[in-house]
Automatic annotation (TrEMBL):
The keyword Repeat does not apply. Residues 1-13 have a biased composition (Basic residues). This is Ribosomal protein S6 glutaminyl transferase. Residues 14-26 have a biased composition (Basic and acidic residues). Residues 1-44 are annotated as: Disordered. Keywords: ATP-binding, Ligase, Magnesium, Manganese, Metal-binding, Nucleotide-binding, Protein biosynthesis, Transferase. One of its GO terms (molecular function) is metal ion binding. It comes from Melittangium boletus DSM 14713. Pfam families: RimK, Rimk_N. Residues 146-329 form the ATP-grasp domain. It comes from the Bacteria.
């Protein structure tokens, strides 16, 4: 169902100044009349997204409306940031954005730089964001993310990054020999993930990428995973849905975009623990954690900070969008309470 267009004009109106909707009268067994209740104002939830027609954006908008709150979809690239001492502002199509309660960034890889600046600007304006600019940046840098996970003792496939063309044979040995996985550091949806079965192939692939100025890593091929991987969606400190993705015939990459098929799974505790710990380590409130099945347990591949969830909702029949919005609303409420309490301390 197409998302209803949300007028950006509303952005100029402070959410709490809007005419409040009446809440239902509380039922009470006591004869004492209860004091009049202050009606709760709607919360404004901003979705940063290039297109409101994208599945995940539409579902988030739907979930916000279902909870009686106000969605506002802003095209990340149309957000203009004004830096002024102690008063950062955001202008969208000539309108000052005010009264935002929480922001959910959906930042595609192609606009990471500008997207991070916009997210950071909302943080400077004191608005809670899921996820923070620092956490998104950390998870987008695949090597840094793997370094952090590895340092914390989590199991990641053996990985090397190098620039020395003369030493490819040693690099292959370091990751456990052939076949070897070669990954573009900036790849997504399985594009830029290759398997090489000979030293010659490895050399050709890495040299091509290096000549194009691209960074690559060599990674141990986790054969036990047999063309499957696990996607766990972590919201806060819970896995709210998980699926096993199977690669199509003749393909080792199980991404849905590469024709992989997802089926709902109930994850063993060890997988849940690893996924939640990894999300905490990278500071991600919402994340899609990709894991391979190793012979000794889950092996972390990567964490996506703006995970698409169409395949996951279809496979699990769960309201993943609703889980994300509930968490966002909880965080915004927590922040509101914190600002109320602070002056009395
Ligand atoms: N080390 C490995 N051993 C075996 N299979 C692997 C390995 N790394 C990746 N794969 C397979 O290739 C697929 C794509 O890898 P990966 O998720 O790293 O790519 P990506 O382009 O970063 O994808 P995403 O869109 O999730 O960011 C995985 O889903 C998995 O099936």
């Amino acid at each position: 169902m197409p998302a209803k267009k949300v007028s950006t004009k509303k952005a100029s109106v402070r959410a709490r100044d809007k005419a409040p909707t009446r809440e239902a009268e509380p039922r009470s067994a006591s004869a004492t009349p209860s004091p009049p209740r202050r009606p709760r104002a709607k919360k404004t939830v901003v979705i940063l997204s290039r297109k409101r027609s994208l599945y995940s954006t539409r579902r988030l908008v739907e979930a916000i409306k279902q909870r009686g709150q106000r969605p506002l979809v802003l095209d990340t690239l149309r957000c203009n940031m004004v830096l002024a001492p102690s008063h950062p502002r955001m202008i969208y199509r000539g309108v000052d954005i005010k009264g935002v309660d929480v922001v959910i960034p959906r930042i595609g890889a192609s606009i990471t730089g500008y997207g991070l600046a916009v997210v950071n600007h909302f943080e400077m304006m004191g608005v809670p964001v899921l996820n923070s600019a620092a956490a998104i940046a950390q998870s987008r840098d695949k090597l840094r993310a793997l370094q952090l996970l590895c340092r914390a003792g989590l199991d990641v496939p053996r990985t090397v990054m190098a620039h020395d063309r003369s030493d490819v044979r040693t690099l292959v040995r370091e990751v456990g020999g052939l076949p070897v996985i070669i990954k573009l550091l900036r790849g997504t949806q399985g594009v830029g993930v290759m398997i090489a079965h000979s030293i010659q192939e490895v050399q050709t692939i890495v040299n091509t990428f290096w000549d194009l100025g691209q960074e690559v890593v060599l990674q141990e091929f986790v054969a036990e995973s047999k063309g499957q991987d696990v996607r766990a969606l972590v919201v806060g400190d819970r896995v709210v849905g998980a699926m096993r993705r199977r690669a199509k015939k003749g393909e080792f990459r199980s991404n849905i975009h590469r024709g992989g098929e997802g089926t709902s799974v109930q994850l063993p505790d060890s997988y849940v623990e690893v996924a939640v710990k990894a999300a905490r380590l990278l500071g991600l409130e919402i994340t899609g954690v990709d894991m391979l099945d190793g012979s000794k347990g889950p092996r972390l591949m990567e964490l996506n900070s703006s995970p698409g969830f169409e395949g996951l909702e279809q496979a699990t029949k769960k309201d993943i969008a609703g889980e994300m919005i509930d968490h966002a609303l909880r965080l915004s409420e927590r922040q509101r309470m914190a600002t109320l309490i602070r002056p009395t301390l």
